[in-house]
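Shall we go through a protein fold together, starting from nothing but its sequence? Please make up or recall a protein chain and show it to me in full. Go ahead whenever you are ready, and we will take it from there.
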Amino acid sequence: MAALLTADKLAGIVQLIPDSWLSNDPGFAGILAQREAYLSYFLLRLQASDVFVQEAIRARSSHL
């Protein structure tokens, strides 16, 4: 699945978030900054996806 979720696709998904869902958080310079933060977070998670997969495999094997 990670191969299908490219940076461009993630950026497109983040752009689909309605502005009304993004609050006026004082920690951000505006909605654009919030979108950039979401995209950055998701890209970091994508880069570390193998860690999550390996942990899921380990957890599953310990319960079998």
